[in-house]
Design brief:
- The protein contains 20 helices and 18 strands.
- It is an alpha/beta fold.
- It has three domains: 163 residues, 2-Layer Sandwich (Ribosomal Protein S5, domain 2), CATH 3.30.230; 240 residues, P-loop containing nucleotide triphosphate hydrolases (Rossmann fold, 3-Layer(aba) Sandwich); 77 residues, Helicase, Ruva Protein, domain 3.
- The strands form six sheets. It has a five-stranded parallel β-sheet with strand order 11-14-17-10-18. Strands 1-2-4-3 form a four-stranded mixed β-sheet. Strands 5-8-9 form a three-stranded parallel β-sheet, with no helix packed on it.
- Helix 5 packs across helix 18 and helix 18 crosses helix 19.
C-alpha cells in the first residue's frame, strides 16, 4: 500500500515543500523514516504513533516506510507530524485520499492528537502558493498567520480526531474565514505620530544632530553619534523609528517571514508594519549578530532587516563581533555555510551606533567637575577598536555636543517627528520615482555605473570633493558614500541637482576618517 501527501519545512527563512511518501507492507511491525531527517523529525514517529491511537484510529502493525523527498535535502523541525500521520491514515484507508489532494499539511502533534503551532508557517505557505497550491491544513493557532498570504484557503484543525468527521475538503466547519485578521497598523495615521510615543520634539536643542538623523532616514544611511555621557545619543537614536515611513507590503512580508521563521512573531494575526528596531547588548557574540548555530537561525542583522540596528557603546563590542558586520553592511545579506547546506538571510538595515569620545567619556569637553583622565595613546587605542573598514561603511559621523542650560529649557521651535517624517517621505518618493525598474529603492544602495550616472556634480562641487579627498585621506568607498549622502541632502531640499553646499554638508559628516582623527588626537 502506498500513499503520498505534501508538507513543508524551513530552509533558512524560506519555505520548502516536501513530499511525504508512505509505504506499508507485510513484515515485522516497525517504522523507518528516510530522507535525511534530523533528530526532531525522527522523534515525530513516536508522537505520530501515540496521536493516531489516542485519536480513535488504528495504527497498522506492519512494516512502514516513510520517505521525505527530495532525499538529498536535510529536513528539520516538527512540521511533518500531521503529514506523516495523515499519510499513514490515507494509506490504510482510514481517511479518504481525495480529502487532502493538492493540500499542504503542516503541524506538530501532541501525544493526545491535538495540534500545536510551528514556527515559519508564513514562509511555508508562501512557498506552497508559488508552486500552485490552493489549500493548506494546519493548527488553528497558525491559521491567522497563514491567512496573511492571499489567494489560498486555510483550514484550521485543533485535533487529529477531527478528520473522522471531515467528509470533504470544502467543509465550512474547518475553513478559516476571520475577516478581521487583516486589520493592522497600516491603517493608523502615521503622520499624526500615533504609532510612537517618543517624539523628537522631546529633545531640547541638538538641531544639527536632528538634521543628521533626518538625512540618515531619508536615504537609509548608517550613522554614528559621538559625544560625552548624558548628551542624549541614545534618546536621539531611539526616536529614529518615528521618522521612518511605513513598510510596503513586500517589505512587510519579508520582515514577517524572518520573525515567523525565528519564532519571534509578536502578532500572528497581522503583517509587521513597524520597521524593526533591534538594540543588542555589547556582550553579544558574532554568531548572535549575524546568525548561526548547528541549524542556522537569523541573527540581529536579519531581525533588523528593513529597520534599525542600534549598537550603543560601540567600542565595547568585541572586535570580532564588529568585524562580522562588514559583509552584511556591504552586501545587504548574510551567507552562512554548513556542511550540508548554505543559508542566506537578508540584512538590509540602518546601522545606528553611539560611542563616547574616549574611555572616560570627557575627552575634548573637560569641565571643572569632569576632567578627562585619558592619555592621547589611550584615546587612540579606544578608537582603534573600530576598524577603518567598518568606519568606512558608516556614512555620517556626528558629534553630539553637551547642551547648555538654556538649550535644556528651550521649548519653542523644536522639530517634531511628524514634521521630519513628512520631509523624509517626500525624499523617499523622489527616490522611488528615480529608481523605478532599476532594482533598488534608496540612495544608500547606489553603486557602480548607476552611481556615476545619478550623482553628477557641478564643477564647483567636484573641485570641493577633490580637495577633501586628498586632505582627509578618503578611501574610494568613502568617496562614493559622500556622493550618496549629497544626493540625499539634495532630495531633502527637493533639488534636482547636487549643489556645492550639498557636497560640503556631506563632507562635514566624515569627521572621523582616519587621517583627520590621528591629527586631532596628536
Amino acid at each position: 500500500m502506498y500513499g503520498k501527501v505534501i508538507s513543508a519545512c524551513l530552509q533558512g527563512i524560506e519555505g520548502q515543500t516536501i513530499e511525504v511518501e508512505v509505504d506499508i507492507s507485510s513484515g515485522l511491525p516497525q517504522i523507518n523514516l528516510v530522507g535525511l531527517p534530523d533528530s526532531a523529525v525522527r522523534e515525530s514517529l513516536e508522537r505520530v504513533r501515540s496521536a493516531i491511537k489516542n485519536s480513535g484510529f488504528t495504527f497498522p502493525m506492519d512494516r512502514i516506510t516513510v520517505n521525505l523527498a527530495p532525499a538529498d535535502l536535510r529536513k528539520e523541525g516538527s512540521s511533518f507530524d500531521l503529514a506523516i500521520a495523515l499519510g499513514i491514515l490515507i494509506t490504510t484507508a482510514q481517511v479518504p485520499a481525495d480529502m487532502i489532494q493538492q493540500t499542504l499539511l503542516i503541524g506538530e502533534l501532541a501525544l493526545d492528537g491535538s495540534l500545536r503551532p510551528v514556527p515559519g508557517v508564513l514562509s511555508m505557505v508562501h512557498a506552497a502558493k508559488r508552486i500552485g497550491f490552493k489549500r493548506v491544513c494546519l493548527p488553528a493557532a497558525n491559521a491567522s498567520e497563514a491567512a496573511l498570504i492571499e489567494g489560498i484557503e486555510v483550514f484550521a484543525i485543533t485535533n487529529l480526531a477531527e478528520f473522522k468527521r471531515w467528509n470533504d475538503i470544502s467543509s465550512s466547519d474547518f475553513l478559516f474565514d476571520d475577516v478581521n485578521y487583516i486589520q493592522d497598523e497600516k491603517s493608523i495615521n502615521l503622520i499624526g505620530g500615533q504609532l510612537y510615543q517618543d517624539d523628537y520634539a522631546d529633545v531640547s536643542g541638538q538641531h544639527q544632530v536632528k538634521r543628521a538623523m533626518m538625512i540618515a532616514a531619508a536615504g537609509m544611511h548608517n550613522i554614528l553619534l559621538i559625544g560625552p555621557p548624558g548628551t542624549g545619543k541614545t534618546m536621539l537614536v531611539k526616536r529614529m523609528p518615528s521618522i521612518l515611513p511605513p513598510m510596503s507590503d513586500k517589505e512587510s512580508i519579508e520582515v514577517t517571514k524572518i520573525y515567523s521563521a525565528s519564532g519571534k512573531l509578536p502578532n500572528r494575526t497581522s503583517l509587521m508594519r513597524r520597521r524593526p528596531f533591534r538594540a543588542p547588548h555589547h556582550t553579544i557574540s558574532a554568531a548572535g549578530l549575524v546568525g548561526g548555530g548547528t541549524i542556522p537561525k537569523p541573527g540581529e542583522v536579519s531581525l533588523a532587516h528593513r529597520g534599525i540596528l542600534f549598537l550603543d557603546e560601540l567600542p565595547e563590542f568585541t572586535r570580532n563581533a564588529l568585524e562580522v558586520l562588514r559583509q552584511p553592511l556591504e552586501d545587504r545579506s548574510v551567507t552562512i555555510g554548513r556542511a550540508r547546506a548554505v543559508y542566506t538571510f537578508p540584512s538590509q538595515f540602518i546601522l545606528a551606533a553611539a560611542m563616547n569620545p574616549c574611555p572616560c567619556g570627557y575627552w575634548g569637553v573637560e569641565t571643572e567637575t569632569n576632567a578627562c583622565t585619558c592619555s592621547p595613546l589611550k584615546v587612540a587605542h579606544y578608537r582603534s577598536k573600530i576598524s577603518g573598514p567598518l568606519l568606512d561603511r558608516i556614512d555620517l559621523h556626528i558629534e553630539v555636543p553637551k547642551p547648555n542650560y538654556a538649550q535644556l529649557k528651550e521649548r519653542t521651535g523644536q522639530l517634531s517627528s511628524s514634521e521630519m517624517l513628512v520631509r523624509v517621505m517626500q525624499a523617499h518618493r523622489r527616490q522611488q520615482q528615480r529608481y523605478a525598474g532599476k532594482g533598488i529603492q534608496h540612495n544608500n544602495e547606489l553603486s557602480g555605473k548607476l552611481l556615476r550616472q545619478t550623482c553628477k556634480l557641478t564643477p564647483e562641487g567636484d573641485q570641493l570633493l577633490s580637495a577633501s579627498f586628498e586632505a582627509l585621506g578618503l578611501s574610494a568607498r568613502a568617496h562614493d558614500r559622500i556622493l550618496r549622502l549629497a544626493l540625499t541632502i539634495a532630495d531633502l531640499e527637493q533639488s534636482d541637482i547636487i549643489l556645492p553646499q550639498h557636497v560640503a554638508e556631506a563632507i562635514q559628516y566624515r569627521n572621523l576618517d582616519k587621517k583627520q582623527s590621528v591629527q586631532e588626537i596628536s
